[in-house]
Amino acid sequence: MLAVFTDLDNCLLDHDTYDYRPALPALSRLKLLGAPIVCTTSKTRAEVEHWLHAIGLSHPSIVENGGGIVLEDGRVEALGRPRAAITPALREAASEALARIRCFADMPAEEIAARCNMGTDRARLAAAREFSEPFVLETPEREDALRASLEQRGLRLTRGGRFHHALAHEGKHGAVRRLVEHWRRAPGALVTIGIGDAPNDEGFLALVDHPIRLAHGDSGPAAWNRRVQAVLDALNL
Ligand SMILES: [Mg+2]
């Protein structure tokens, strides 16, 4: 069995236009192989539903940097704390660390839309966080202090392509590990491919058999298509 774990932004989706079509040849090859394609993203469940429908993929999916696994049947396995507990702790930590932040919770949908280069309908899906709080760190020199202050509250700081994120779970890799362990219990060998581009992808890329790191300048769906097909060619699949 082959399983693919992929980040979305700047990987399967273009960073600016969110186009995925250049990846279609590799996607159809993976579908013919029956390989699950697991979106492994900082996006919310609502956003992932939108993209699964648009691209023609299905669950399981890893949402909000591993805060939740949406299973094949749509049930959600939560791995962290609810957002309602995270946002106030993040505000406390920022104030203690003398870090100035702007939380997603404080941004109207129009601001999220402008920052993410998307329409307000999609921004509302992005705002529907359940397991984490994205934020802009307006004082980057306070990042280490903020990280320490979050850790004292049992929270983690991670960084995606656009935002910092406060989490109460391990990160994407914790969720990837759970799915891999689940599939390894089934008979037959499991081969895993992972595709990512940002620091919050490094943890899960270290867990897969064939990590694909998309570098700045050679990222997005065309690179995704080429690099995934190269791995499939090398595996004679
Ligand atoms: Mg990314």
Q: What's the gist of this structure?
A:
This protein is 38% helix and 19% strand.
Q: Helicity level, as a percent range? A: 25-40%
**From the coordinates shown, what is the CATH architecture of the largest domain?**
3-Layer(aba) Sandwich
- The CATH superfamily label of the largest domain reads HAD superfamily/HAD-like
Question: Between the first and last Cα atoms, what is the distance in angstroms?
Answer: 11 Å
Notes on the protein architecture:
The protein has 237 residues and is of the alpha/beta class. The protein has 2 domains: 141 residues, 3-Layer(aba) Sandwich (Rossmann fold), CATH 3.40.50; 85 residues, Putative mannosyl-3-phosphoglycerate phosphatase, domain 2 (Threonyl-tRNA Synthetase, Chain A, domain 2, 2-Layer Sandwich), CATH 3.30.980.20. Helix content is 38%, strand content 19%. The protein contains 9 helices and 11 strands. A hairpin with a 4-residue loop joins strand 3 and strand 4. The radius of gyration is 17 Å and the shape is globular. The chain starts with a strand and ends with a helix. The site of magnesium ion (MG) has 7 residues, from loops.
